[in-house]
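Working notes for the structural subgroup meeting. M.R. asked for a predicted model of this chain before we commit to crystallization trials. I am recording the input and output together here so anyone reviewing the notebook later can reproduce the run.

Input as submitted:
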Amino acid sequence: MRKILVSASLMAISVFVSGQEKVDQDMIQKIRKEGLENSKVMDIVFQLTDVNGPRLMNSPGYLKAANYAKTTLAGWGLENSALESWGEWGKGWELQKSYFAMTAPYYRPFIMFPKTWTNGTNGLQNAELLLVTAKTNDELKAYEGKMKGKIIILARADTLFPTYKPDASRYTDEELQKMADWNPKNVPERTTMGRNAFGPGNGLNPNTIKEMASKEGAVAILSTSPRGRDGTIFPQGGGAYLSNSPANFLDVVLAYEEYMSLYRLAAANVPVKLEMDVKSQFKTDDTKGYNVVAEIKGTDKKLKEELVMLGGHLDSWHASHGATDNAAGCAVMMEVVRILKTLNVKPRRTIRIALWGGEEQGLHGSRNYVKNHFTDTTVTPRRYNKEGDKVSGYFNLDNGTGKVRGIYTQGNTGVKDIFAQWLTPFNDLGATTVTLQNTGGTDHQAFDAVNIPGFQFIQDPMEYNTRTHHTNMDGYDHLSADDLKQAATIIAAFVYNTAQREEKLPRKPIK
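Returned structure, recorded in token form:
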């Protein structure tokens, strides 16, 4: 069915038909005006990115950003603003220096980042390049006694192919219609993709080679992926971060073109000399994990103990400022509650914002929060407890800087018509689509897993999966201010409507 755009003059008119949601259109107009004309979202995201830097979980940058959020939310008048521990996490880690260059056969500095939770070099190290071509453990034995003082590079069999697609894109009308028409009865459920580690493609587990390199006294091992083309690299975790975990050997992610240049030189037996200086610091004084929480208290005598939750993950990887992943989502959600406080909203239900830690390593902050507050751990499969029954819904944002085009319902048929009506005042801003599809990889799954309604908004892809997601390019300059203003405005309306409904949002049947 073709979507019909609604002009601003018609938005304030309430048309009552069978199944119509009771929506305060006057308040929706106020939200729209405040969100689009008086936005502070870019000021917030500037603080989370340029001012506080990378926000690797439990790093100094993460804690600085968390304290900024806590203080700012309290300053806007939210109550119970706090850093709430969800349990044991592990070590913090901070990169303090990172330099790598070739000095022979000529000088060339490299685009690189060490992986997280790895050791440094203990000062500037001069080293030769050693190519390891072993494909089996037996072949690896041939390198015993040869790795000391070397920087290790592994053979690769992949090739860089040119791309003919634009880096940035928006959803087309056809793509959105396909989402809207999606029916789980007709389409097999898509399994959630795992978080890939980019292996060397040489047949051996890289950890086996790293263990030997560390034991033999090598300086570092190099990694790359053809996905990291044109100077964009994807450095992530380099090993365990638990408090009692042993130190991780230095693993350096190099731009693909530079890695392959070194590989070709080594394969041709051209002597290569390198210098590397990496300094990192582990933080072990406080190994607990923290989320940021704050709330606008409900005012209805019957409903004030019920909750509407919104949030996104505050942590990032370390190679950039995590602007699109996920300072943008956190800034939008903070802007949502700023809009509501500025308008002096008196919600019937309590509105609680949560900015999660540890999402990048497995949704730790949100999963532990749900476990600690809302889950009956005595029941299998897991489901919500008495407190979880009070949560009407949780709204999440974590797909970059793109504007909201609609919402994923995670197969919840009961909310589809409700959300379609809530989107109607924003159809002219490009938000039209409600889909029964599931989407994964972020914190709404922690709620959905125990049958608490949890939703992620559909966002235009922009450059998220090509340039910014988990890369060294994920900075402020890749953000779209107008898109973030639009997102905050729409989500503020969704949160307000959820807080004011007579009933909680419908839940999926318990299987």
